[in-house]
């Protein structure tokens, strides 16, 4: 049944593409930030303008680091085909001029909440916990195998549904934000393209079951990074608290 | 008035050792975690055993990374005198055998709260936000100038007072913890020695006012790192929340 090198038996535990995809979807169902109470409040319209400002200002730090994250991944691949495909992400966020791109569009959203864009760009008021979580994303793509760095982007598998819902709900509950939704509009088609590329890459480059498990773990870790950013927001600006999925729970609480 | 190289005028804004020390104390007064509500609750006896477990388990992650942090600093100095002095810190935490050292003593404290030490060492239940804050400390000492890496340890200027108070209050409010306080006992003399060394180093190696300001900023950043760990605990296990000093505040809140 085909050629097989001595000492390299087939990994009979290898997941099929469909099985791997199912495992990744399961992670998203349990740990993606669409379940976070801060987002649930946003979508039911119970956040105040000040809380939306805190969200826009803190998440700007995340957005501003995305092209840095993608440039690190670019810098780690020796394959021009991969680099050409991945380069699109840097362009999506940085734009072709200073007047476009995802970062500029996020700033437009922050402005629509009533914040001075210079204050947002300055970043002095970002929660330390936001910075630490985002910086951990940079650590991940810098230090772990390229396969895992790519796999950590797979949260984009779940972002289209969240963005569609969010745009509807923001327009409904916060009509004064409607002029600032270009970022999400663009992500509606960018994210699924990116997710499909990363999913194929992960399947083709995880050659053993144990590598497939590192792909799944990288997605879990990225979900933690998104979740922790909302925890920090909720803690500082909403209240009260709860431990994230899988963390230590006090007995009887 | 002594020899002065052409083109190297005296930096007339340079702080004296006393002035620098006063600026550092001011940072500690405002931002050190002795002011954090989680610690205030601990000292007034209003934390539950479960909350103390959460604290011991999460802070174990911090303790376990301290000798790594100090080894990074060791690795960055080309001065044998400096390295010999700094090496003491690694020994203080790792011990001379697996039965002693600060990490082992912290584990004894965690055991005294009723936790299985293997569960604590495993680390699976540490809050992501704890890991991110601690990892940021490693980033700081790895990536920023050695002067700032050393200065970030200056929170030890303030730890003796906090530890003295804490030992009294833990014995008073949580007598079942009394057998687990060896860690603090050892730090009572270790921390002031370390702080004095780092303070002298910072003064002698900050040659301009602007370098002195980076020393002060490194201490602020370290205070943020300690504070964020307690925020994460409070958010997950106590409630309700507030923004840390200097962070974005919602207007009218």
Can you put this structure into words, describing what you see?
The structure is a homodimer of 253-residue chains. By secondary structure, the first copy, chain A, is an all-alpha fold. The first copy, chain A, has one domain (28-237): Heme Oxygenase, Chain A, CATH 1.20.910.10. The first copy, chain A, has eleven helices and no strands. In chain A, helix 3 packs antiparallel against helix 11 (209-237). Chain A starts with 16 loop residues before the first helix and ends in a 16-residue tail after the last helix. The relative contact order of chain A is 0.17. Mean pLDDT of chain A is 88; it is low at 1-5 and 241-248. At the A-B interface, helix 3, helix 7 and helix 11 of A face helix 3, helix 7 and helix 11 of B.
Largest sheet of chain A: none
Identify the CATH architecture of chain A.
Up-down Bundle
**Uncertain segments of chain A:** 1-5, 241-248
Distance between the termini of chain A: 57 Å
| Rg from Cα of chain A | 19 Å
Number of helices of chain A: 11
Percentage of residues in DSSP E strands of chain A: under 5%
CATH fold name of chain A: Heme Oxygenase, Chain A
Q: Please, how many domains of chain A?
A: 1
Oligomeric nature of the chains? homodimer
Compose a concise summary of this entry.
The structure is a homodimer of 253-residue chains. Helices cover 70% and strands 0% of the residues of chain A.
Summarize this structure as a short list of keywords or feature phrases.
homodimer; 253 residues; mainly alpha; Heme Oxygenase, Chain A; 11 helices; 0% strand
Layout of helices and strands:
The structure is a homodimer of 253-residue chains.
Chain A: H1 17-31, H2 37-44, H3 49-76, H4 80-94, H5 102-112, H6 117-122, H7 128-143, H8 146-151, H9 156-173, H10 182-205, H11 209-237
Helix pairs in contact in A: 1-11, 3-4, 3-5, 3-7, 3-11, 5-10, 7-11, 9-10
């Amino acid at each position: 049944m085909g050629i097989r090198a001595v000492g390299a038996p087939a990994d009979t535990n290898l997941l099929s593409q469909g099985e791997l995809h199912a495992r990744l979807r399961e992670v998203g169902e349990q740990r993606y930030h669409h379940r976070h109470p801060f987002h649930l409040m946003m979508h039911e319209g119970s956040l105040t303008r000040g809380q939306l400002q805190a969200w826009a200002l803190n998440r700007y730090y995340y957005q501003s680091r995305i092209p840095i994250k993608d440039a690190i991944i670019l810098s780690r691949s020796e394959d021009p085909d991969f680099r050409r495909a991945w380069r699109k992400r840097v362009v999506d966020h940085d734009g072709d001029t200073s007047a476009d791109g995802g970062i500029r569009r996020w700033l437009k959203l922050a402005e629509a909440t009533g914040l001075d864009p210079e204050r947002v760009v300055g970043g002095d008021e970002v929660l330390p916990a936001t910075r630490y979580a985002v910086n951990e994303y940079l650590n991940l793509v810098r230090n772990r195998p390229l396969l895992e760095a790519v796999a950590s982007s797979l949260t984009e598998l779940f972002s289209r549904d969240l963005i569609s819902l969010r745009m509807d709900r923001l327009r409904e509950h916060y009509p004064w934000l409607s002029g600032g939704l270009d970022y999400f509009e663009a992500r509606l088609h960018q994210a699924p393209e990116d997710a499909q590329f990363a999913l194929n890459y992960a399947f083709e480059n995880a050659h053993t079951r144990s590598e497939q498990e590192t792909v799944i773990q990288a997605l879990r870790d990225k979900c933690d990074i998104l979740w922790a950013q909302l925890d920090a927001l909720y803690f500082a600006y909403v209240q009260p608290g709860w431990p994230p999925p899988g963390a230590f729970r006090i007995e009887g609480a």
